Description:
This protein is α+β, with helices and mostly antiparallel strands. It has helices at residues 3-19, 31-34, 68-80, 101-105, 116-126, 132-147, 156-164, 167-178, 186-197, 203-209, 211-215, 229-242, 248-255, 291-304, and strands at residues 42-47, 53-56, 62-63, 153-154, 199-201, 259-261, 266-271, 275-280. The strands form 2 sheets. A 5-stranded antiparallel beta sheet has the order 2-1-8-7-6, sandwiched between helices. A 3-stranded antiparallel beta sheet has the order 3-5-4. The two termini are 18 Å apart.
Amino acid sequence: MDRAAVQAQISRIAARMAREKDRGQVARYIPELAQVDPQQFGIAVAPIKGEVILAGQAEQPFSVQSISKVFALTLALSRAGAGLWQRVGREPSGDPFNSIVQLEYEKGVPRNPFINAGAIVISDVLLEGRDQQAAIADYLAFLANVTGESQVAIDPAVWASERATSARNRALAQFIAAEGNLRHPVEEVLELYFQQCSLALSCAQLAKAGRYLAAGCREMGAGPVSLPVSRARRINALMMTCGCYDASGDVAYRVGLPCKSGVGGGVLAIVPGVAAIAAWCPGLDEKGNSKLALEALEDLAQSMSWSVF
Length: 309
Ligand code: GLU
């Protein structure tokens, strides 16, 4: 990978994004996220080997929100293996990330692990054989491992804010429980889910965290879980088809890389065999994806000729 070319492109993109007037809307349904300054923009590229390349506010921590679903899925697959797919599907939902309608038609089996309903089932899997404190400790240890940090942290204000405004997620969890697809108490499952979403990482840390998906898991697989190479490909496939809510098809068309977004304004993108990219800008488009982070990824992918197609 031509590091100088990547640095030049992301510096240009960060300058372009600083000038943008139309920045989308910060998420308001989690009050703590509504406080975040929409003017911020950061981007980081973590090559499989070598130092991470930064531009803009790439070292400013933000709430990863749904991007956490990639890491939770990785852990859950390492524990439950393919049996997991009895309890959650692998199809795009075509509905908003917090939609409840499909659950009724499909008997409490969420469409995929990257919408809220699916991630709630994944939290339930992560509670197998451990209590909630041990489960979140394992998740944080995994993140510390893949970011290369001595520790990573949950933002307690975001966590409290999520819990206080969780009626919709509670409805999803209760419905899944009613259909028999949760094995642990709803409250414990939700606490783990809220904590996992409230993880704060910078673009630099998030890009480093995503490297195991760019490298094929084996390269980065030391630590609390073992990660076969084929798993990276499958997680990338799910990011491509389901990672950006009901705009996943449009993001595949525009960016051409597996992406996972979160309502904190972050997007993680994977260039298989090359690098992981994290872009962040808090304002969201009408589908809940960061407006400018996606524009930045589209620009970078085109200018570096990065695409899986
Ligand atoms: N914690 C958020 C929620 O449960 C995550 C949403 C997202 O980033 O898509 O609604």
